[in-house]
């Protein structure tokens, strides 16, 4: 038989065989972290293949036709202290660390959301604002406004991050206005003087404009970090009626006049007070300027975010802070705790992001401010000169940040007490399921999608990210 004729007859068979093999070889990949540290966010060699379901094991059913909130990203607070440690690394070590954190290829973890402090936070070496004045002096015209200290570390580090991933979203949060704007003339506690509401609104506008001039776009700001906790240094007491008045009469109009498109996020404190953001959103004059509400989880239950969503379903929700720490040199890693509480808990309750506190510290958890700084805030990474140690916060964020890219959407999955989970569909159509085995024994289960299932097993205390 002529060679070309044989090829003509064989071609349909070759194509059919190729199609079967392609279907056979499509499965779910698994990135795994085990509680005993034998596996720390590593891709497993063997894929898991979908096949007809026939098992008595618990089944996690995925339905990508039922969708919830879009996802903006996962990441950390880049505190002044974090930036200080990073900028002091050698150029090569710094470049390698930032690539690992913010690039998405290979084993890099693809952090996509950053929180910056507007002025100092309690994890800076010293307290400062962008318009500090000698005691007894004021600057209502903001003639002395200057990003000064941030030029040394935060701004150059952010520029390197944006060179790696220009689409990283940035949230700015103030810990305190300049002391001369406050009732107690101190960086710690006190309230914003009503006479300076308009000046402070211009101060926040100038921050956004000056950062933009540096090539750093602030996607959103919160009005005040932990407004009901005036014990940090720096800090401010800002009760809900005051925050609402500041937004509707000063900040909202100032943003509009300056054509600022940065989102306004209210509250930025614990889940035990959902009444705070709800009361502000109940006022249409304030609500029209507000994108959504931010939450921490040092108090209350994560389900409070759903309470706010149900009260105002047209507004977004964000998870803006929780400290995630582990004992030094522990033989185990409690990976299921932050994954269940934050990665799964916050997103199953409508949050568009998850931010953990904070990105980096040194082995002594420094720096932190006096009179109210945090002496126990472990970084996602510990930096000791050029040496880097990866901690619990790093791995917990990695399980989401690498795969659930901005623009993903949460999709339906049935939950379980032993196997809490959350599912997403990514912009390129992939499905991601994050599962935490919080039980005291190994769990066999199925992942069901479109009538077929993957058989999976997670050891106790393990977390798996499944991607297909």
Automatic annotation (TrEMBL):
Transmembrane segments: none
A Pfam cross-reference name: Glyco_hydro_30C
Residues making up the signal peptide according to the UniProt record: 1-22
GO molecular function, one term: glucosylceramidase activity
InterPro entries xrefs: GH, GH30_C, Glyco_hydro_30, Glyco_hydro_30_TIM-barrel, Glyco_hydro_b
Domain Glycosyl hydrolase family 30 beta sandwich per the UniProt entry, residue ranges: 407-466
Record keywords: Glycosidase, Hydrolase, Signal
Protein name as annotated: Glucosylceramidase
Organism of provenance: Mucilaginibacter pocheonensis
UniProt lineage: Bacteria, Pseudomonadati, Bacteroidota, Sphingobacteriia, Sphingobacteriales
């Amino acid at each position: 038989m002529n060679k070309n004729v044989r090829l003509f007859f064989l071609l349909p068979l070759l194509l059919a065989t190729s199609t079967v093999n392609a279907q056979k070889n499509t499965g779910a990949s698994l990135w795994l972290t085990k509680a005993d540290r034998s596996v720390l966010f590593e891709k497993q060699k063997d894929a898991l293949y979908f096949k007809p379901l026939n098992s008595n094991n618990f089944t996690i059913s995925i339905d990508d036709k039922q969708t919830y909130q879009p996802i903006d990203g996962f990441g950390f607070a880049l505190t002044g202290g974090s930036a200080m440690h990073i900028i002091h690394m050698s150029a090569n070590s710094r470049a390698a660390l930032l690539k690992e954190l913010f690039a998405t290829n290979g084993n890099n973890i693809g952090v996509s959301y950053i929180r910056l402090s507007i002025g100092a936070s309690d994890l800076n070496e010293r307290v400062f604002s962008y318009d500090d004045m000698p005691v007894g002096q004021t600057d209502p015209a903001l003639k002395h406004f200057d990003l000064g200290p941030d030029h040394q570390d935060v701004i150059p580090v952010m520029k390197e991050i944006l060179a790696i991933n220009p689409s990283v979203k940035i949230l700015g949060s103030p810990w305190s206005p300049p002391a001369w704007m406050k009732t107690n003339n101190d960086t710690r506690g006190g309230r914003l003087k009503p006479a300076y509401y308009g000046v402070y609104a211009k101060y926040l506008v100038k921050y956004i404009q000056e950062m933009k001039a540096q090539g750093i776009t602030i996607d959103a700001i919160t009005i005040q970090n932990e407004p009901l906790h005036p014990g940090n240094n720096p800090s401010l007491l800002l009760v809900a009626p005051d925050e609402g008045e500041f937004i509707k009469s000063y900040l909202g109009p100032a943003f509009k006049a300056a054509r600022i498109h940065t989102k306004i996020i209210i509250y930025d404190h614990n889940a035990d007070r959902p009444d705070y953001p709800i009361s502000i959103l109940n006022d249409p004059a304030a609500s029209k300027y507000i994108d959504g509400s931010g939450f921490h989880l040092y108090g209350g239950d994560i389900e409070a975010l759903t309470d706010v969503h149900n009260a105002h379903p047209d507004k977004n929700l964000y998870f803006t802070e929780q400290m995630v720490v582990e004992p030094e040199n522990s033989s185990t890693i409690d990976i299921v705790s932050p994954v269940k509480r934050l990665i799964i808990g916050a997103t199953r309750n409508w949050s568009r992001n998850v931010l953990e506190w904070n990105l980096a510290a040194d082995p002594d958890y420094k720096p932190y401010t006096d009179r109210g700084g945090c002496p126990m805030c472990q970084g996602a990474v510990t930096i000791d000169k050029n040496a880097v140690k990866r901690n619990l916060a790093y791995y917990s964020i990695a399980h989401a940040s690498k795969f659930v890219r901005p623009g993903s959407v949460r999709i339906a999955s049935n939950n379980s007490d032993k196997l809490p989970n959350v599912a997403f569909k990514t912009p390129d159509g992939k499905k991601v399921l994050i599962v935490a085995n919080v039980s005291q024994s190994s769990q066999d289960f199925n992942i069901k999608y479109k009538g077929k299932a993957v058989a999976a097993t997670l050891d106790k205390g393990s977390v798996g990210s499944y991607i297909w």
